[in-house]
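haha ok so turns out i had the wrong file open the whole time. this is the CORRECT one, sorry everyone. sequence first:
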Amino acid sequence: MGGTHVAPAGLIGPNAITRIAQVLPAWRGSAFTQDVFERAGLLAHWRRPPEQMVREDEVRALHAALRAALPAEEAAAVSRAAGRATADYLLAHRIPQPVQRLLKLLPAGLAARVLVAAITRHAWTFAGSGEFSATPAHRSAQGRQPWVLAIRHNPLCRDLHTTTPACDYYAATFERLFQVLVHRETRVREISCEACRSGPEDTLNDACRFELRW
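then structure:
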């Protein structure tokens, strides 16, 4: 989980592409998957999965092509599967095992703070030119309030207009990480989405926000 890095604006880690390539063939086959990559103008990434940071417009094009090629519910399910696969990759290759063991030993509230701090330091790998923030959980008269993670100017939602939240990929990645490292009953729900924004006056959907509860 290392130190803080600053990435060039407009770049995202390759998992947002490679995990779609990993999970989609199980749903619709390799030929269909290749067609989705071709529609996105990313046949080169299908033939040779990227290993370095990729342009966020490429990620946006692939996720848009996926939504265009599948019914909404199926596209969301594939995005969630890709998000879980991304989390599994991070657990296997990016988050040191000693850190994982420590997080699992900590009380859930403390483990969440440590994990959120690490996610914040590495937000450049998934938010691209967007702005990531986290609102911590706290106790109130209504009980324990949830963590809320947010991405403002989300590159995956740029020029996207939907009636329901569209960030299943991010939600599933966060949910899987927290289920493994913080609390197995963690659930993540996207409570606002820039893709749903009706205009500048719509402050409810001025960022993509993910509510974490367990």
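The CA atoms of residues 193 and 208 lie 4 Å apart.
again sry for the mixup
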